[in-house]
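Re: your question about Ankyrin repeat domain-containing protein

S., sorry for the slow reply, the queue was backed up all week. Below is exactly what I fed in.
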Amino acid sequence: MHAKLTLLLFCSCLFPLALHAGAIHDAAKKGDVTAIIAALDAGADVNASDGSATPLYFAVKRGRLAAARLLIEHGADVNAPTQWGPALMAAVTKGRIELIRLLLENGADPNAQLDSETALHIAAGSGCLDCVKALVEAGADVNARTKDTKTPIHLARLKGHRDVADYLMAHGVVLPKPAPISARLASADVEKGRAYFAGNCASCHKVEPQGAAKTGPNLWGVVGRAKASLQQISYSETLRAWGGVWSYEDLNIYLSGPMLTTPGVYMETPGIPDEADRANVIAYLRTRSDTPPMLP
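Result:
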């Protein structure tokens, strides 16, 4: 009997808190400032999670500016983690510039991320220039990379947001450039290059004189060929704008990390970051031609 009474008293203490927690989340979603104040006055935790997210996250996601401001004034943690990342991620995803500024002005981390994708990646990919400016001015890393090496400028160029790409280039983007590789090609191992290509590139590229292309263009005769020149292949604006022919050094730049060195290209792979592997593959590609070009 005593144990049952203790449990009853325990539940009677917890139930009101749980109800208040649910009430503040519902009020935040609706933007009901009066209900938020009532829930806080009744003891609701401003940073409580409903199992997925905080009241502030829901207010931001629904675009409830007044509610978000009120929650912050009452101590809401602008960087609180949720199932979908901190509140800034919701603001950027929806392109809510006033909420982005509110969060940043109150200490939100401009480099907030979810699964290695930062708020700036999302803003750049969506083409929201004002969002990008707000994040960069607050200290967002313009060279941030996702786990598969995508950068904000790559996403901006890929999706045709030239104004965003130009802004990022003017505000610190660094396009890496590998060391020259021509001197290594004479001693490169063509057989290792063939094996590397077969294991890592052949699923997307043919390297035979005849036959339709796979996902990517046929690389037969690629060394010395004009860039973006094959018929019936859709090329990115970035690659078309590069111009010229595929020299040894241009292949070196491109293959070292396509999305990093030439952002906006359709080849969304990490490339061949190892210099020795890259030299071997380029040496192999040289041989895949009716008239292999001279070595440097």
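The radius of gyration is 27 Å. The CA atoms of residues 26 and 55 lie 8 Å apart.

Happy to talk it through on Thursday.
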